[in-house]
Amino acid sequence: MALFAKIRGEFIDIVEWLDDSRDTLVWRFPRYENEIKMGARLVVRESQVAVFVNEGRIADAFAPGTYTLETANLPILSTLKGWKHGFHSPFKSEVYFVSTRQFADFKWGTQNPVMVRDPEFGPVRLRAFGAYAARVTDAPALLRELAGTDAQFRTEEVEGYLRQLVVGRLAHALGTAGVALLDLAAGQHEMGRRLAEALTADLAGVGLSIPTFTIENISLPEEVERALDKRSQMGIVGDLGDYARFQAANALESSDGAGEGMGLGMGIAAGQHLASTLAPQPAPQTQPAPHPQPSPQAQPTPYPPPSPQAQPTPHPQPAPQDQAGPPPLPRPDEWYLGVDGERRGPFDAAGLATAGLTPDALVWRAGMPQWTPARDVPELAALLHSTPPPLPPA
């Protein structure tokens, strides 16, 4: 088998790579004992770079195009080999084809939430995910720093390194963004652009760049999202009273039956109660309580019963046959007098003066809510001033 490989290698004089995969960054051209004929053709297609490595040292790099491998086209390798002009012989060298197209199938995401301080909600934990594209910008640097002598260097071998770098940069970007949480969606594109520039600068030493960086979503913990949903619902509902009436109207259109009518009534009552409970209540205002107005048939407030010998009455006692019915109702022009714990009366206005009326005596008549000192009753002011005051002691 080694003999056939050697013979096949002697007759092959075209060095090229047709990429049939979607994830290969670097591919090493296979040759028998790494021998390449002098004068062979090198074909480098678009989105490729061919790098010659001689004895572990990068010798030459070729951009897209077709080349005839001669000493004129291999200046560094010719210097290393010490060939004279026109010397034609096979030479040993490794040829690596490096793909320079965009690899746009890289995904990223925060394995652990990033803690940030939001100006409206305070400390919150954020998760984010998205995608980005990578491209080789310096093939020799990629071979030196990452690929090495790997015969087929794939994207999966560099994806973990890139993801760690992306997440580290993203945490710093979110922490220093200074944008409110609810406004992050509007700034995701600009944040992605700045992250792409920062990552490209970080990867320049390994020959890679990040042409595009996309933030697909920035999410909150589930409990915070539920709280935001409730807050949004309250903002959409607006006035709870109007919302309850709207719900009742919709239920009325679709209801048919006594049971549904009863449920409708309960729903309306519950909605009105909820609206009255959540609506802002005005500050209570202190107002004087109005005095209750008694009915004309009100009886005088109970007063300690007077002794028989101290209770004068100007009216004749009713006959025994009149006592069988209910007691007569007081008239508005009849006054009752309370003196020393005794209730006297009824009297007319003129009879109060002779019954012992003083400014401190308690009086009552039909229409008054309670017993009141005579000095506080306007109707008795003239009567009190016309009564001579008591004589001073001797």
From TrEMBL:
Span list, region Disordered: 279-352
Pfam family, one: GYF_2
SUPFAM superfamilies in UniProt: Band 7/SPFH domain (SSF117892)
Domain GYF: 335-380
InterPro entries the UniProt entry points to: Band_7/SPFH_dom_sf, GYF_2, SPFH_YdjI
Domain of life of the source: Bacteria
Positions of the SPFH domain: 26-236
Biased composition (Pro residues): 281-330
Name this polypeptide is given: SPFH domain-containing protein
Organism annotation: Nonomuraea rosea
